[in-house]
Amino acid sequence: MSVPSTTPRPVAANSVWPQLESLLPQVTKPIQYVGGELGAVVKDWDAATVRWALMYPDAYEVGLPNQGVQILYEVLNELPDVLAERTYAVWPDLEKLMRAHGVPQFTVDAHRPVRDFDLFGVSFATELGYTNLLTAIDLAGVPLLAADRTDADPVIVAGGHAAFNPEPIADFVDAAVLGDGEEAVLEITAIVREWKAEGCPGGRDELLLRLARTESVYVPRFYDVDYLPDGRIQRVVPNRADVPFRVHKRTTMDLDAWPYPKKPLVPLAETVHERYAVEIFRGCTRGCRFCQAGMITRPVRERSITTVGQMVQQGLEFSGFHEVGLLSLSSADHSEIGDMCSGLAEQYQGTNVSLSLPSTRVDAFNIDLAQELSRNGRRTGLTFAPEGGSERIRKVINKMVSKDDLIRTVVTAYTNGWRQVKLYFMCGLPTETDEDVLEIAAMAHEVIKAGRAATGSKDIRCTVSIGGFVPKPHTPFQWASMERPEVIDHRLKLLKQAINADRSLGRAIGYRYHDGEPSLIEGLLSRGDRRVGAVIRRVWENGGRFDGWSEHFSYQRWVDAATEVLPAFGVDLDWYTTREREELEVLPWDHLDSGLDKDWLWQDWQDSLSEYEQDDCRWTPCFDCGVCPAMDTEIQIGPTGRKLLPLTPVNGLKLPAGAQQ
Q: Pfam families from the entry (predicted)?
């Protein structure tokens, strides 16, 4: 463990803007580093007791719309003695200039050095952002290894879905939070506030110990990992008596008590999403066996229809956005989605406000929903996710959607004015064959034929989008082997040929895919242990940045790093990716409690191999996955019997100065 340093933390942070401003004309999209967006907050540094730097480890255009960071940013800044600012990954052109001119990683709000903050919170939606984390830490002037940090360095806290297995980055982060962040950041803030008020007794280790004692903050330095001779983990155990054996996830139960964001950030530069997004419920019990998000966010907790209405009204009035995204893992499953959409459509009829359901299940979309979503004449994109091409593979993954369901749903969209839909599938699923994948082409052909017949028009299109399957922790597929990239690529090639075999239909079908190589590396990172951290560092030292972007990702760089680093541990890249795990194997994340019973997950894995489908426990008896009793929670669904409030139609939205027109 590191010895606490007596180096004092800076009492004030100077802006790096004077040095940064002269560099911006030399980089692409300089506006993304300027800050000052509508909704941004700049507070007095000296008036704050606890100071957070929040990061989504990707470019501004991807990071700014991130709902989780926006919520935490607002929750923290509402506290009078707390300051929160944002930072994003800088593109390589600016990174090079920053290193040459000694400009550190900075926040976009007040351009303060990240190293001067008490806490540096990083939210990971995907493991491919790990190299960007190392860039930010290094640019900030903070030691890469947590063991080398002193009291003068911020405490680096990982969050987001990838934090449910933070072991690959355990050497680089000081702590990780599992689950919902709203209450967690307030608890962490209170601990830091009290520790500082007492004069920072015991230094950095004492602060981390106080965080670990909450039993909901994981501090890797307090846990040791022992390995068996064959490379498997023997055990993960605390190295001191006063920290818990297992760390539990946080679950925010009453979403109505957390109606954020109230003041959404309005970007200065183009971003991937420009809309007011409101999360209408959290969690999912559909039971898709590949879906980590659905498993780790259980139980289902719905936001009431009245709170959604109030949030939309307040969010639109503040931001001036013209689109409302009703977010969740499966938005059409909200028990009051019909009344919610009709109420919002009535309220904003005659305006240019449109509604969208970014995630829509095939079997939950109907004509009434279609009509409400298109009432104002603007039709946002529709994406349906059958995930598997054949009926058989959909039983394996527990995606209970038939071919007839899909065609009926897509025809409903076409007959209600949509001319383009997107169908999302995965390749490389457990037990998958070439024939399973080729059925995607047959399904796409049927969709086009049915759409043309129903509308009497050939102006019908669909896009087939293929993602590579990646086994994730805390899912029934956490034991599964991955297919090698060449197998995935072969199947994708066959699929493309099959789609274009009928030219009259193939012309109406777009085809997008991710090849097998990035998926294999994501699989290494998602199910890796602490030994994988050395691979991440080697990749980063060799220039790895923005690995989630195809133009920056280098498969060979990762393969070379794994080949150089892993043999010293007696393992290799295949050991982490294409190897199927055994039932009793200790998994790197077993000491991190998502609430799911490991025996239940194993049984569901066996059920998948038997092609047995599991129902949704919202509407059927409990299947004893373990979440509700383990987390002392319960499923919370309506209907409330209420209507959307306020009911007064909005004839025109008053836009704030500087908002979008």
A: Radical_SAM, Radical_SAM_N2
